[in-house]
Design brief:
The protein is mainly alpha-helical. The protein has 24 helices and two strands. The N terminus is likely disordered.
Length: 445
């Protein structure tokens, strides 16, 4: 429904029907959302109840996208999670890490909202050299994979569950062989529709059968909300705003996070373009500025009331792609794209509140997080390579920057990356040419 001011509102049942496959997928894929619980406990010192409440709030805020006719499934800024964890690693768990995350999330929110409102997002990202973008992504990949395969990582704790989950997840999402199998066999095509769900099912089956994971103890009712504890432990209205120095220290990470998130917006744009081309029967509009603003508002609310380590991102790529693929098959498969994305987000927002779902999935949460980290590490790696393909010096800058991200932190990595760009890639000359071009443009005006 479009209002006179141009704002579109989409309501379930009134403007779209809910699609059953996405409802079922959301019911199990909430395991990925719930895997933020151990992250919040480890990085911020939240109790289980406070962390559950924060996840429920984050899932509810994700509904804003479909409500305002943004045809994507939002999620975390997953590819930036490892950078955020590296950033928080320099702060003591508790009030220090909470203040550090508040500063970061509020800055990320401001970048999203300002660039969305002004339409300057493309211009900002275009100014960053490809080697630096690639280096940030390489650093995110290394940090993500180190949490799984490094000493004391998830693989050493749950070798069978993590091993089976990651192998199945990577195979279903990225394998050329599986893509061919989907074209030949309907059963594989059906499996592919559910994205990462197959990896979680495989990990749960192997973990429960081998005894590596304890069997879940089912509990009934709703999750134990702890809004008061969450508010008192982390809200700026309780713990106060971070100091100016903390805000200043968060700036490089905030910019890097946005660069990664903007890549997700570009991905969403391309996925929706394919959907529009395949299905001209439904008018779909993807507006990057609207996506920026909604994502910024989600981060603003979380930053003020419940700082959220994975941050609020514009796209859950694996799920959006799988829904888009089914949508492209025609009206008989999915009447409206909003029916798919709306059903999935409503399912996750409701299921996260149900104690039977939370208690059933609790043993597998570390596995879901490990699989997510490996998938994002793989995705960050190939996106990084695409940024600098065919340029040896840029590849060297990117590799060196990525290694320093993991070894010494993002601030040192940016310093190394910028210096390498200026000295080894002729960056100083490129900047001078860009400045001359800008002068000529101003003179013409």
């Amino acid at each position: 429904m479009k209002r006179k001011n141009g704002l579109s509102i989409m309501l379930p049942f009134a403007h779209y029907r809910l699609e059953l496959p996405e409802v079922l997928q959301g019911a199990l894929m909430i395991a990925v959302g719930l895997s933020a619980v151990p992250i919040l406990q480890e990085s911020l010192g939240f109790s289980y109840e406070a962390a559950l409440t924060a996840v429920a709030l984050a899932e509810a805020l994700g509904l804003l996208h479909v409500l305002f006719a943004d045809p994507v499934v939002p999620g975390w800024i997953a590819s930036a999670l490892s950078l955020v964890l590296v950033y928080l690693g320099g702060h003591a768990v508790g009030i220090d890490s909470i203040h550090a995350l508040i500063a970061l999330q509020l800055e990320v929110s401001a970048i999203f909202i300002i660039l969305g409102a002004t339409g300057l997002a493309h211009r900002l990202v275009s100014l960053i050299p490809p080697s630096l973008k690639a280096g940030i992504l390489f650093g995110a990949a290394i940090a993500a994979l180190a949490r799984v395969f490094g000493g004391g990582g998830y693989l050493s704790k749950y070798p069978l569950s993590v091993g089976s989950g990651t192998v199945v997840g990577l195979f279903v999402l990225f394998s050329v062989s599986f893509r061919k199998m989907k074209d030949r066999k309907k059963a594989f095509k059906e499996i592919g529709k559910y994205g990462m769900l197959s990896s979680l099912v495989a990990a749960m089956a192997v973990g429960f059968i081998s005894g590596e994971l304890p069997l879940p103890e089912l509990k009934w009712g709703f999750i134990p909300f702890s809004f008061r504890e969450l508010f008192e432990a982390s809200s700026v209205f309780s713990v106060g705003l971070p100091s100016a120095s903390v805000f200043l220290a968060a700036v490089p990470t905030a910019i890097a996070v946005y660069v990664i998130a903007f890549g997700e917006i570009i991905t969403a744009e391309s996925v929706l373009a394919e959907c529009v081309e395949a299905r001209p029967d439904e008018p779909l509009e993807f507006n990057a500025n609207r996506t920026n603003i909604i994502t910024g508002l989600r981060n603003l609310i979380l930053g003020l009331f419940a700082p959220f380590t994975p941050l609020a991102g514009p796209l859950w790529a694996a799920v959006t792609v799988s829904i888009g693929e089914r949508y492209k098959e025609g009206k008989d498969s999915m009447k409206s794209l909003f029916g798919g994305v709306g059903a999935f987000k409503l399912s996750t927002a409701i299921c996260v509140l149900l104690m039977p779902v939370a208690s059933f999935l609790q043993p597998v949460l570390p596995i879901a997080l490990a699989v997510t980290l490996v998938v994002q590490g793989f995705a960050c790696s190939y996106i990084a390579v695409e940024q600098i393909r065919g340029d040896r010096n840029a590849a060297g800058t990117a590799g060196m920057t990525g290694a320093v991200v993991y070894l010494a932190g993002l601030n040192w990595a940016l310093a190394v990356g910028i210096l390498a760009y200026l000295l080894l890639e002729g960056g100083a000359g490129k900047i001078a040419e860009w400045a001359k071009g800008l002068k000529k443009l101003r003179a013409r005006k």
